[in-house]
Amino acid sequence: MNQLEKIRGHLKTINEHKALVTKLCFRCGLYKQGLLHDLSKYSPCELKTGFKYYQGYRSPINAQKEAEGHSYSWLHHKGRNPHHWEYWIDNAKDGLKPVAMPFEYVAEMFCDRVAASMTYMKDKYRDDSALKYFEDNRHSTVFHPDTERQIHYLLQYLADHGLDKTMKRIRFLLNRYRQTGSPGI
Predict the structure, then answer these.
(1) Which one, of 21, 19, 16, lies nearest residue 167 by Cα?
(2) What is the mean pLDDT of the chain?
(3) pTM for this structure?
(4) Does some domain include residue 185?
(5) Distance of CA 39 to the CA centre of its chain
(6) Cα-Cα-Cα-Cα dihedral sign, residues 108, 141, 52, 57
(7) DSSP 117-169
(8) What pLDDT, in 10s, does the model give residues 9-44?
(9) Strand, helix or coil for residue 1
């Protein structure tokens, strides 16, 4: 694949992904988050990585980590986007500590994970795809227990009930969270 094809492919992928996340966020009432989602992907730091490591079937950040051992692009991205669990790791006095994510960001993380599965898997996507990815990668995450329980609940709900019912459920849980400070899951 030549460089122009990589540039076009990466831009197409991130635009598709952002459009899907925005649509999902709007469906559950996260209008501002939907509009602002992943804008850092258009920064020079993140675009450079995307253009260099684009493959079309997975995130260029993963390819950069394999090639270079780390990704400055990822550090840039996760530090500006609170829908990533890594944003919520604190350097506490006893070492690194996961902090509970506000539920609005758990819901956006759900939208992001589902849209990523749809974007990369295309017609192989199923309602349990994001759950399977979550479970397959659980060993390399450091979620706060509340955050882990909430995202797992939403991904399992999607696998069991489909996208339409899950979007309605998230809207209900967001309303409960805004009223009581807890989504109740």
Answers:
(1) 21
(2) 97
(3) 0.95
(4) no
(5) 13
(6) negative
(7) HHHHHGGG--TTHHHHHHHHTGGG----HHHHHHHHHHHHHHHHH-HHHHHHH
(8) 999 999 999 999 999 999 999 999 999 999 999 999
(9) coil
Residues 16 and 145: their CA atoms lie apart, in Å, by 31
Say if 16 falls within a structural domain. Answer: yes
Give the chain's domain count.
Answer: 1
| pLDDT confidence of residue 57 | 87
Task: Count CA within 13 A, CB hemisphere, residue 59.
Answer: 17
| Domain containing residue 67 | 3-180
Looking at residue 86, what DSSP letter applies? G
**Is-contact 41 47, C-beta < 8 A?**
yes
In a domain, 97, yes or no: yes
Give the tens place of pLDDT for each residue, 97-141: 999 999 999 999 999 999 999 999 999 999 999 999 999 999 999
